[in-house]
Amino acid sequence: MHISECAGGVGKATRVRMPVFVLTLFRGFMLLSGLVTSIPSPAQYSMSEVKSPSSKVRPVGQDVADLLKGTARFNYQAIPSCRPIDSGGVALDDIFKALPLSDYSVKDGTTLLVKNMPPVESQGGLPICHGYSAAAIVQQYLCEVDNWDCQHLSQERKIAPIGMATYSKLSDAKKKINDFEGYEGVVLAGSGALNLINGAVFIGMTYSNICYPYEKVVAENSNDTRVLDDKFEKLKSSYKDAHRDPQSACIDCLADELQRDFDKKVAANDLKAAVAQDTFEKFLYSTLLYGCDEVVEIVPKPVVHVFPSATGGAAYKRVRQDEVQPSQRLSSYGPTIEKIRGVLATGRPVQVDGICVDGKPNACKSGHSVVIAGYREMCSSSGKGCREALLIHNSWGEDWQEKHDGGWVDAYTLLETTGYASGTLSWLTDPLPTSGWDRVKFEN
After folding, report:
1. Contacts from 362-365 at CB under 8 Å and sequence distance 24+?
2. Which terminus of the chain is more exposed, N or C, with fewer CB under 10 A?
3. pTM of the shown model
4. Can you tell me whether residue 197 is helix, strand or coil?
């Protein structure tokens, strides 16, 4: 707990590592003693109002109302493949398009680069790009405030992307948004923006990579997405069979599968409890993360910014991205790229949600999330003019980065696939002496 934060300060905390249950008890004591403001249950909020820490009522947009009800999907997330697999006849290279260096060169004085970024990693066959992008955003923030070298982190300081992926959804509507134990599923259809809001603002800690260093599993499978995808599908099938008929389930067989394919040893009794979970997402959480006490505290708590946002409360009807028409978009390329440049200039990366990887923003079936860590203008030597480019950190691994000009892609082509829906961009800034939803800034 960052004590100076409770006193209204924003000083730098000394990080003390404690088991999760100790942190939870301590936070409970602080709530009961009145030293920090409680966060009401999502069910207590209406669609048009939210209580601030001072208990006054202030109007909010549909963004917050949906978030509190646990239904917001800032961007289209129905079937978030997150995977580097071409689909629907659309080549991914047409979306993540690099400008040919044979014709384009960098315009002097236009380059913006975020320093101290964590290494690019691969999600393998697990569709949690939103967990990877959110983890990178938070990790860079912590490296800056704590003077860590983000390229050479210990497992203790490294954030587990699979842990950040839990913050996209409260498992039980009755749970409170600031309850660490309320997030008990590795969400496979999530939002990077929600991960930042719930994880960085309301919880203030997340699982350390000690809990489950998934990158080792990816490396053991040579970063072969299709092989890992097949293994996860097989595990999902094994879980469903065991859940459907627990009396006849071969728990030892399932334990062997987890040990062999995912380098995870789970005791028989724990595995029986995991099989009883009602979703595969909760099963993954129970087998890969549950019971681990190793956490990284996110202190001091940052401010999360979200752009664009829907304002006007109930006057704005939430729509899925596959229903969005150009006239319903909340922004456009100009304001969006300007916002990105402004954030990068402060030394912070930007998360992009809702990239439609099948290239059809108005009829999207597969979404993706990445992190933007750089900007530059590229000018043609053959008279084609200048274009803007973005440096992205993609969760498809170093090989993908190297084959795509180190991650530099055409800005307009990439951003147009998002449909500029609510929450396309999200990022962190330095803490303020506030709490709760006052740490979340929805921007137009």
Report:
1. 362/321, 362/322, 362/323, 362/324, 362/325, 362/419, 363/322, 364/76, 364/321, 364/322, 364/419, 365/78, 365/79, 365/87, 365/88, 365/322
2. C
3. 0.81
4. helix
Would you say residue 58 has pLDDT above 80?
no
Q: What are the tokens at 407?
A: 């991650």
What are 147-202's pLDDT values in tens digits? 999 999 999 999 999 999 999 888 877 788 888 888 989 998 788 988 999 999 89
Cβ contacts of 164 within 8 Å, gap of 6 or more: 131, 132, 134, 135, 138, 195, 199, 206, 207
- How far is residue 421's CA from residue 332's CA, in Å, rounded to a whole number? 10
CA distance 74 to 256: 38
Q: By the 8 A CB rule, do 413 and 97 touch?
A: yes
pLDDT: which is higher, 37 or 117: 117
Q: What is the distance of C-alpha 145 from the center of its chain?
A: 20
What is the sign, positive or negative, of the torsion defined by CA atoms of 140, 145, 146, 149? positive
Answer whether 195's CB lies under 8 Å from 131's CB. yes
Please say if the pLDDT value at position 57 is more than 60: no
**Residue carrying the six token digits 């969760």:** 395
From residue 411, alpha-carbon distances to 4, 85, 99, 343, 383 in Å are 41, 21, 10, 15, 19
